[in-house]
């Protein structure tokens, strides 16, 4: 079952089940994204910032920083709204892979699949294991990996 949502919801640990799939909205990657990311990260490698240099490189044009893609993916997941009020802590990013470059003009979206739901030691939180995959407008997988998160349990009434 795929869920599409665009507004924050009052979801808690008890609302998630293994196998749920969410699809994010799309977002177009711009040259401004690359320049801004290069500026605040200090990663000004010519493969990201120099069109003339990149023209003669492997991809024929500048590519987005891999971590820029991961950051955009996390932002798109945030905009789903289902983690808006229950998110406690990101637990880790595992097996993250960069499958295909992201280019200026690509419109990306993500699917997020809940792979495991389990209780935590503390009675007021639970753990969600999630598989996140980023696609471009053509359906090519760009990046993917597992991202665990701690979420609040529904408060007692």
UniProtKB/TrEMBL annotation:
InterPro entries: HotDog_dom_sf (IPR029069), MaoC-like_dom (IPR002539), MCH/BMMD (IPR052342). Residues 18-127 form the MaoC-like domain. SUPFAM superfamilies: Thioesterase/thiol ester dehydrase-isomerase. It comes from the Bacteria. Pfam families: MaoC_dehydratas. Belongs to the enoyl-CoA hydratase/isomerase family. This is Acyl dehydratase. It comes from Nocardioides panzhihuensis.
